[in-house]
Amino acid sequence: MSHSRYADDTATCSIPTVTTTGGTVNASAPPAAGPATLTAKVTPHRNAYTPSMAPAWHRVAELSIRVTAMTSIAAIVLIFAFVAKEALPLFFSEHVHKEVTLGKMWTAQAWPGYDSPDYIWQPVSEIPKFGIWPLIIGTLKVSLVSMLVAVPLGVGAALYLSQYASRRTREIVKPAIELLAGIPSVVLGFFALMVMASWFQDLLGLESRLNAVVAGVALSFAIIPVIFTISEEAFGAVPRSYIEASTALGAARYQTVVRVLIPAASPGIAAAVALGLGRAVGETMVVLMASGNAAITSASFVDSARTLSATIAAELAEVVFGGAHYTVLFFLGTFLFVITFGINFIGDLAIRRMKRKLGVAQ
Amino acid sequence: MTVLQPSVFARKLRSRIGDGALLISCGAATLLVMIIMATIVIDVIHHGAPRLSWTFLSKAPEQGMTQGGVFPAIFGTVALVIMMTIAVVPAGVATAIYLHEYADRDSWLTRIIRVAVNNLAGVPSIVFGLFGLGFFIQFVGAGADRLFFSGHKVLGQPALLWAALTMAVLTLPVVIVTTEEALRAVPQELRAASLALGATKFQTIIKVVLPQATAGILTGTILAISRGAGEVAPILFTGAAYYLPQLPWHPQNQFMHLGYHVYVLATQSPDVDASKPLLYATVLVLLVVTFVLNLSAFVVRSRMRSRFAGGTS
Searching chain A, which residue's CA lies closest to the CA of residue B266? Predict the structure, then answer.
């Protein structure tokens, strides 16, 4: 069955067969002849406009709409193909293998001047070192901090707006959060670098001014709107009858929220968290400016950190085209693409599940 | 006479405490988000506004970015955004029309397009930068150079054109999603009426559906522009430059950009204290531009929604 918005545009104009039963309707028909059939053939007026007379460019335009609609598919395929293509030498090129192999990136290497094998990212030194773990740890640290801040704030604000806020409050808060979403990440990075970093240093007496906490908190500002918007939609999609039923059973409001509303909206909240995380892992400018960019393997959140995305942004401008470093940076890009693709895919599945569960039309 | 049971009393107390705690924590979360937002805006206005002047907006930077203005960066941003819009709006609107008016909602092709659009929206912006470099510059540009310019570097280098196209790919999902939302809001009866009058499907779309959806398309365009004006990561390697003596009048020129200007000035300035006032003023310009764009998108969209609120959906 077609779900096209147009019933059936190929149907031609035809008048259904008219069947009469006996002489009461059609006096001229012989009484004993049984059911007689009259078929009317409709010929369009000579000035009538028929689809076949539409200008030729309409067909061309329709065709180009269909072709253009494939742009998104082409884009996602090309993005993967061309970022991965530049990373391919890492797998096959002898020339690149002199400096780095995929295996060496992931395992501890014995470097001259170090006591024990270690994971080190130092691509621009006499002996280039491409250990990827410091970058992954940096990415995880910054993302974790940002999620710890953004999830409670985003979900909490969404809950407040959907359950408690007056119409007036909603009309102020919603546009404000949309504006927060519109703040360019470079501005958030700037704010973190210039203002927040000093506040945090004064407040906590930190050794390094720029660190994973500053970057993570600044990053959370970019993610709060994402989490807020999706969870607000999720809370809004929970049918009123659920809440009314719970209240009618004598549940207090917090019980309704905790036992009914949040479980019903949970796929939506999961989606919000997943899409927020996808954004956190991929966001570049904030961490580039505020994380301090030191690729060190440390468990401390107040140490300077370097993320995958910031590494690409900071280093690609100064590399030799096609060299080992260039190849590795494109590999990091491919890696980032695959991770965020996976996270967003999970988020998408969760959204679809929520819509099915709550019976919301697409 | 009923005596209030202690257990009932305890339960009531617990309910009140629970309700109060929930309300306070959610309210506090909302308040905190608003405070964060206000702090950023107030800080930028407080430090940036004193330096903002007509000279600042109309002059080029002077003396190592410690004097003068940001006109070339504004010009570059506007040029980038215009070229991006020319590329992204037709593509995005056509995709939305296809998805909503032509495609069979359950076909595998439609599903793949939707998955692609959703995932495109989630690709990290720095990966778009790599894509712009790998595809537009290294493949398309350098390929064209080999074909037409016998290997001279004409197209195969960072330029306004490539940055704009990269940004267009990045903003494509924004335009598609908002346009589709607008098409969805156009009452089905209008299509039926148009078809009943003998119009073809294409005529219906052009003459009836699209005019009704103009506001939505406008919203998508504005949001895309706002995004394009603010993103920096995709243009790092595809065309942005720190300082250029000339304005980018040709698509093959490199260009200055407000966001990139902020990034470089904040992280690589030789004299941070000297350039700080100008930096703040630049951030203010960028913030005002994106706020005005987002606010107008919000207004257009809410008007559109209230207009169709009475009709069937």
Answer: A190
